[in-house]
Protein 1
Amino acid sequence: MRTLLLSVLSIFVLPVHGQADSDDMLTRTLEAVVVSSNRNETTRRMAPTLVSVIGENLFATTNSATLSQGLNFQPGVRVENNCQNCGFQQVRINGLDGPYTQILIDSRPIFSSLAGVYGLEQIPANMIERVEVMRGGGSALYGSSAIAGIINIITKEPKRNFATFSHTLTGLGGSSAFDNHTTLNASLVTDNRKAGLYLFAQNRERGGYDADGDGYTELSRIKGQTLGMRSFIRLADYQRLTLEYHHIEEMRRGGDNIKRPPHEASVAEQTEHAINTGSLKYDWQTADSRHSLSAYASAQHIHRDSYYGGGYDMNAYGTTRDMTWMAGAQYNYEFERCLFMPATLTAGVEYNHDDLHDDMWGYQRTTDQQIGIASLFVQNEWKTRRWGLLLGGRLDSHSLIDHVIFSPRATMRYNPTDNVNIRASYSWGFRAPQAFDEDLHVANVGGTVSMIRLADDLTEEKSRSLSLSADMYRTWGAWQANLLVEGFYTTLSDVFALRETGYVDGILMNERYNEDGARVYGLTAEGRLEYRDRLQMQMGVTVQEARYKSPRQWSDDPEVGPEQRMFRTPRTYGYLSLSYRPTHHFQMSVSGTYTGSMLVEHRAGYIGADRVEKTPSFMDMGVKLAHDFHLYKGVELELNAGVQNIFNAYQKDFDQGADRDSGYIYGPSMPRSWFVGLKMSF
């Protein structure tokens, strides 16, 4: 094994002659710009921490219409469906639940907990330029919840004049349910490049899908629209103003009798969302680029009308309003030499405010939550082409915590050659408590109305994260290869848990308190291979262990024992994406994900008592064929077709009927489904 490992590493470290034909391909990959690593635009080669990027091409080749579908094709990342009724999805990085991941829009933390429930599926791929994924603790950069990692959604900006239109029709599982998805994109840039406007729109209609014929959906019915824009204007040679705005409307319904009002169903979950999100950013720098300043503000408003109930309950209607906004400023100074090498100083201040009101009138349950966070961050990054050292930290004053939280981090980068990047990172992270929990709707549907209060001595969750990685590139003539190996270790302390404290006015009260802790550690490997513009292949695998430090009681049934291993965390999972273009106009793509066996909670209702299930491993594979046609002077037509989940590795043991556990769902997000589509480019 040692000999094999040294042989593989030598391929990337030892020089090879005669590779000039594809040096430009290698350069494009290494010089790709990312911002999540240090809050500044930095090439991937020089970034202090490892950042993986999902681009437009990957969304296209995997037929990913939404953010949630594309996120699966990254090492260490899994997206799972957690509810048969409403389609609630969450992303897991390195085995940790969704709340441990901070989701950003254009580098701003305005993706609230309310938005996170359905937002992964609500954000269309056609508004995304790229998604940056940084695994490991990021609280020193972005504050609360950045424990498992960061997902930074960078929206598209105008770069040239063009327009595209596309439509995809997908048949779900051979049933009468279809998913219709239509997108429109357009970009306008002035001749002098001083102003530009990017427009995007999306419409989606999906019928409810019942996999086992019991009259209850496994995939909710969805009707949604998105309309948005991003624009810039150069105020002067070294000043720029950027504006982004998008509006999302969505109605989704799951359960039975989905064409009837929700109170005429045995089980119904229905939500109607109106989401408005926007940002404004001002950038300034001096002519010599020594000084730069950014001032920014972002906001997101959500209005949700909902029904979470069962048994023909007229009282289960409710509404939720959430207003999240933040403002801040960041200053950078470039040192020609600071102590021992050139450096970049970054410092800034931010304030984030979240105001949430949730009301279920019939149950007389009301939750008001206001959170304010004042933050100060500073870091200094020493860097040359070979070496990089970053020391930084962040102070957060959280309105629900009686002390200031300090989150430091230290990273080191060593590039022994231009094509080998070795990194080490150590960071602290935290997750702040909140009284409003989006999982409360699960209990409501079961007929129990619940609320959460915070324990008097509740403190924030804390994390300590360590990662070591080697990112290596190599070219042989027209071939290019990349190998990434990363080891990670995260320890959690004061982990949040819930316990029942009894009923008050008919409402079940749960108390959030701190338990001991947990450990997550493992190894991730990713390989990429490219041949000119003909062949692109990438695959990744993660092997991990995720356990609480002591067994944790998950069931209220005293006959059910505690479990130490984290639920829904397979020890092995990975992905594959292969694209081959035999001619300039024809492309074939194969993509898929693998999920190993894992433990899943299965709660009583359809079954007699709570129990832990060990799921089978499964592979979700898809195929796509696409052909381009040149119609007329810059007008191109693409026709495509394919199949998703080609082996139909769909869950076979769903609960049935009104008493089912809707959270007992673990397989691929879709059954075997055929699709056809077209795309017009102008």
Protein 2
Amino acid sequence: MNYRNTFIVAACAATTCLFNSLSAFGVEAETIEAIEVVGHHNSLLITAEIDLSQSSTPDMRGQLQTLPGLHINGNGAISGVLQYRGLFGDRMRINIDGAEIAGAGPNAMDSPLSHVMGTLYQQVTLHQGIAPVSVGAETIAGALEVDEYQFAINSQDTWQTQGGLTGQVSHNDNRAISALLFSSANNRYISVSADVQKAENYVSGDGDIVPSTFYERAAIKLKAGLQHAQHRFDITLGKRDTNASGTPALAMDILFVDALWYRLSHQYQYNDQWLVQTQMFGNHNEHDMNNFTLRTAPMPTMFRLNAVTSDALGIESKAMYEVANKEFEIGAEVFQRDHSSFISNPNNSQFFINNFNDIERDRISAYIQYSQNLATWDWEAGVRLSQVNQKTQAVSTNMAMMNPNVKALQSNFNNAERDLDFSLIDVVTKVNIPLDKNMTVHLSAGVKERAPTYSELFTWFPLGVSAGLADGRNYIGNLELDKETAYKLDVGLTMSDVDWSFVSRVFYSQIDDYIVGMPSTNISANNIAMMNGIPNPLQWNNTDATLAGFDTHMAIQLTNHWALHSTIEYVRGKYTSSDSLNQSMEQDLYRLAPLTGSVRVVYGFDKWQWQVNLRAVAAQNKVAEGQNETPTSGYGLLNTSIEYELNEQLSFTLLAENLLEKQYADHLAGINRVREASIPMGAKLPGAGRNIGLFAQYQF
């Protein structure tokens, strides 16, 4: 038996951990908004209420980066791509209100985070470490859930109404308003939420206007449901419209993204032991972008308009059986996605690139999971099997008639096998071993697999479709890609007492056939790049990679009024490449966040709360030479806020971000692609300078 098989057997036989109800890191809820670590399905979760007053970022990146291990790849102000422990994009499962979102933009312009409502009562749940199989398929990085708070349904005849209203303004020209209304009676409810967000280009610490960082969008969401006997029915219908919004690290800006999503769910509590849940969900997105309306236009011959559409439909069902100290869960899902992309030039009716032509990505998946709480330890084991099929129609472009290199790319793609199947396995085992009442050891192992994305497979013409990397490079797909297979280990320690807690995890992943962009060997694609005077594209290829690191969170309630939180996280990655002599060599993995730490001090007294947050980021010198990645300098940011609670309903928060007006560029920030701006083309986009804002919140 080889080591991979041994690993799979060990994963199936071995371990993970339940950490039972460590609450709020040992701090009082009325004193501080805290992260909560809770036990569920024998898996360690980290949940946090989204506090809108603590960051002006519209896609919640400021709030999410307080969770250990999470970082954001920056495309634009509303287009952040989540990275967890060095893995990003479609390797991370993000569920919004219980549903998986399929964005329209092939370059993550409308990433899953861009679909989140900015209203009150949002809660995020991070499945720390290795995600259980019950969360979903293709969770090679992990899983994050964003949900609206679930109000209790009133059983009385009289309607009871709850809700809230928030408003935010800042001197950096951020404006936002959000509202939520929930009303229920007779075991029925209806809920309405809405938000509007708008901002102009922000200014860096050095006073430079950062181009195409403006945005404008609005959303509305309707929910209704009823509880009847052992049944509960819920329906959700949402719409988010993004209007003129910039994406400075991408080749085009957003003209509009019209997104519609829905979810129908049914829950049946058969008896005290059996619970059955079924849902159908889907979304439809229409997305237009161009390079000439919202930024300095190129020559008319280089005007580009990209019209993109996507549709998704999913059906999931699961049954859970719980008795005494045992829990059993079985489930299945079907998820289907369609994508199309068409590029044109309004100044030339003859020009077109049929970039993605009616792509279908179908996934069928089923799983089984079992957990048990024993006298001295707890364990969980699960297996998920998935089948992914991807196919696309033939592509075309008018350039094929004029350029033999383009014709070769088109012909080779159309004559190749474009109906591809991938069989995936997901095996996770976890164990939790309490050493005493204050200390628990967590062990987990798993095998995770992911099929390539449609952009990694079907980008037949070299374009800036970088899967959310926003690195300024052109990419070309690869129909010969294999699936990624990750062998993962995670070891953790939790210690806690009444007024303090410590949570630390060490992780290691070996990924076979990791998909990364490598210098293209496609002669036709390279010739096109040479004729256009740009670097050769990167082509998606399989290689072997390893990632290892740690993340730690500590919280202490120092006194009745003072609390301290700190987080530190680090990840290092390597992958195997070949030199000009076809000799194997190791390189640093592309686009990894450097060592990062934060300290947050909170003082609460009477109706006042004061917070000071210091975030320190080390220099990143471990860069991928094969992708021409450049090092970045370290930096520190100081944020502070003062909150005053006028009464139980109304509060005000004065927020100061980057108080010292530090000039910095995050390593995961995108590369500027906007001409004639104060930020040079090809330079890393700097973060925002000092921003003073006022946040008001009313709840009833």
Protein 3
Amino acid sequence: MNIATDSFLEEGKNCWRRSRAQRFGWLVDADEYFVALRDSIGKAEHEILILGWDIDSRTELIRDPDHPDNPSPLAQTLEELVREKPGLRVHILSWDFSVIYLLERELLPAQSFGWQESERLHFELDGQHPVGASQHQKIVVVDGVLAFSGGIDLTKARWDTRQHAANDDRRRDPDGQNYRPFHDVQAVVSGPAAADLRELVNERWTNATGESLPKLEKKADEVWPDDVCVRGHDVDTAIARTWIQPDHNRDIHEVLQLYLDTIESARNYIYIENQYFTSPQITAALEERLRGESPPEIAIVMPGETSGWLEQATMDVLRNEAFARLRRADRHGTLRIVSPVFDELGDTTINVHAKIMVADGNTARIGSANLSQRSMGLDTECDILIDHSDCGDLLTADLLAEHLGADFDDILECLASEGLFAAIDRYNGGPRRLEKLETSAYDLEQTVLRPMAQIADLEKPLLRNSGGAEKKDSDSDGETMHTPASGWLFISFVAAILGLWIYLGVQGTGGEFEPRALLDSLRKAAAHPLAPWVAVPAFVAGSLVVTPVTAMIALCGLLFDPWVAVPTATAGMLASTAVNHWIGAHFGNAISARVPAPVTRRINGIAEASDAWSLAGLRLIPIAPFTVINLVAGASGVNLRDFLVGSVIGMGPGIVLICLSVDRARAALQGEAVFDPWIVVAIAVAGVAIIGLRAWQQKARKSRD
């Protein structure tokens, strides 16, 4: 197979596999995808493989009443195909989702897919991930010769048409609830590229179940969907992954590297569509291009708002930070950050869920990866890129035609002759348009909830585990990863918080959760005399599931008055430290097996002196999470008394600073007077103490070196 040699693509660096797609196309919005999928699986004779973040058996594939296959609920369709075709096998692998999604997901999906009724229809849940991670790939492979891959899951609240009509009754979930317009893109490939995606799905299946998929014994016929336009013949493709593995040296970050290399290679324009934008690495790469000489035109299309205030107070906070950096770097006016606006929708915004990057018209990328820290370094992702073709310009023109309500050919001609911004400007301003996405610095709500943003967009696993399903085939290395007990505890912890939230009934008149109502309710509960005594064991429970200690301290500052919050947070920190230390002391071997050796060596190096002042240094530098430091200290035989005193020295000023700062933000949020001279003085003293401790720690480290 002849692959272009002048490409920036490199297997093992920014992609997993390079090959050819005999045919390549894309499907904009789920109506196109679901119809094409129904057509292809209807032609299948041997195998249908489905891999997803969420898969709902009730998903209606056909919603046109005049279509011959209407209705086509997913499970029913697959069951009928298996009954009609004796040689057909179906394998479905869905993420074993966390409990926090319980109210949003189908409760018993395995039973819904009729796995008990047919030996040829297999449904499995994939729980082989680090704590806090998810299976985020969205892939369907038909007979090993055709594959769909991109951002669209076969689940509820995904279906929509290119029109995104305001009153489309078909845009309802299986429970009959309306949802906002939804925009996404799915790639479709045939030939060797499809075979590669089948191999990828087999890897995921084996990792989750311990068994490989059956081999395809017969060559399959063509199953390309009849109504899908072929955008490229015999084109170069590359598949990039994010996959975090038990062995630190085997972590796969091809998705991130491919983004960085694509940004660096662009000369004329970069067109991006994405749900999130929080990755500091991607931000830095775009900053560098914007500050350079002759930067490309960069257009970033994002949803006007994310779904719900909690996401707005977490992911949107990080997004606003990134966009502020990009706008400051935009020396030449070559940056546009926009969102689609349709007048007929009124105040309703379109949920842009696509994961697209086009560079210079000859590189088109469609995938599952958001421009977030999670997608770069935690969740399991798959992106497919088409190189050395005109597919990039075609995809950009197709997407702009939808957003601007313009003719595809007109946009394509302008894009090719005058550039990206010219194509947008010429056809912008009508009832369908791209408007500047306004961002702001922190408001008071976002400041209060800021610690939650880091939890929502984890960059690395909370803990690693090398256990899991064992592959039964002889060529397996037997090493997989799964969510350990601490992961389920973490999930339960979060679920309990959300359950309390729902129980309190803190809703506005429109049924949406309101932060102020929630805060008022929690403050009232925290006023109970026993509340601080409950908070201390809550700290311990949080530490056992590796909840960031800064988040727990901030929560104390939010719920209690400062003179209660500071001693409560300190007591909770000390109790957590003692319990974690005890666990480390009694299960040292297990701790050593889970914590990377470099981290252990650094902690032990600082703790060698084993006096309180030296141990304070463990709290002043970001070696590892709070819980991990405690466990390793216990496993290493560090004296508990000195460790506790050192923890107070190292963390005390920070506890004061966090509690008081959060309290002032809380006061502003509730309309109280913000300025209090004593609190201002205390914050200043705590800040000076932190600076002094860090300076001392650096001096001590140099002395040891």
